[in-house]
Amino acid sequence: MKKRFLIIAVFFVFFTPQLNTAQAGSLSFPCNIVLEPVKDIPNIQGTALITKVKKPYSDKPGSPVRERTAIGIYADWMPLPSTFGDYDQYEGFAQIPGVISWRFKMYPVKEDQPSWFGGSPWVGKYDEISAELSADAIVQLRLSNSRSGNLGPAVLQDTLKGCGK
């Protein structure tokens, strides 16, 4: 009986870290995820494209390149941010919970013919992520106040679980 417990203990000590490492590196890029509404807000939808990009270290021709992860967000049928309170813009927000986060400005897309029921598209991207993303990383579209710098609650969100191989 003691031998059986010893074997189980050895298994967990040696193989559990390897399983976690394998899961962390099991994301496949490029990947897109659907950003779901956090609350029941009619019509709003979003998507995020997560991919690897090669960026030069400088603007000089022939400069060496480095690989980064990029996140682009497209959200449509978004009401004016002020609809939700003291907010004047949306921001993209990505995080590895408890480790690091990134926030980036979103821009409204001017349409020739505005939608009759309101709402417009917002887009934005951030392409300087050097950390290794995992399936529990979160991508959100959040409210923001540009004057105070305060980041508001998430309106759309999802994790990278759908990016697995």
Give an account of the 3D structure.
It is a single chain. By secondary structure, the chain is mostly beta strands. It has one domain (26-163). It contains 1 helix and 9 strands, in the order H-E-E-E-E-E-E-E-E-E. The chain has one helix at residues 2-24; strands spanning 31-37, 45-56, 65-78, 89-96, 100-105, 107-108, 120-129, 138-144, 151-159. A 9-stranded antiparallel sheet has the order 5-4-8-9-1-2-3-7-6, with no helix packed on it. It starts with a helix and ends in a 6-residue tail after the last strand. The model is unreliable at 1-24 (pLDDT under 50).
- Topology order in helix (H) and strand (E) letters: HEEEEEEEEE
Q: In what order do the strands lie side by side in the largest sheet?
A: 5-4-8-9-1-2-3-7-6
Distance between the termini: 39 Å
Number of strands: 9
* Contiguous helical run count: 1
Throw out a few tags for this protein.
disordered N terminus; 9-stranded antiparallel beta sheet; about 160 residues; 9 strands; mainly beta
Q: Can you give me a brief rundown of this structure?
A:
The N terminus is likely disordered. The chain has one domain. The protein is mainly beta and 165 residues long.
Question: Topology of this structure?
Answer:
Layout: H1 2-24, E1 31-37, E2 45-56, E3 65-78, E4 89-96, E5 100-105, E6 107-108, E7 120-129, E8 138-144, E9 151-159
Antiparallel strand pairs: 1-2, 1-9, 2-3, 3-7, 4-5, 4-8, 6-7, 8-9
